Please model this.
Amino acid sequence: MPKIKRSFYNQKTLKVAKLLLGKFLIRKIGKKIIAGKIVETEAYAGPEDLASHASRGKTPRTAPMFGPPGFAYIYLVYGMNYCFNIVTEGNDYPAAVLIRALEPAEGVKSMFGRRSLVYTPDPLPILTNGPGKLCQALSIDKTLNRVDLTGGTLWLEDRGIKIKLSEIVAKKRIGVDYAGKYKNKPWRFYLKGSIYVSKK
Model:
């Protein structure tokens, strides 16, 4: 399947956040491939966006957001959950898209290790319906911070799924009540009807 090129990420962040819906996030561990379809994203656009880490300036933690597009920005929240973001737009303009939820596609047993899965009509949403959960499922942690997403460890693919604008729901972001006038920006996007979305 065609790997997404860096030029895709070098676009306006809100546009990329929508275009990422229906694309596939791929994680390679040795010879093992784990993959999921992106069904929910959240945009963080520029230094004025008070919900963004970048609004506090460039620090060792936020430095990846100020770098070139198409790289990973990964951080730890609450001392236990990793969040995977894709850096967007150009050098020195801090912006990124948080991947919030996936629909499992390949390597499902690998995603959850020895945890037993009870196969009911919809057993998987509780396992990848959030940024921390999907990072755990794909073994994404701080060691992948700044990794090149056009490389061979963690990347995205376009598998030809066409998403219509009518299929995309725009809502306010989650957990950013501190962000003043930016707290209600409808910059979280998800696929209508997906059972894998973290919050409707």
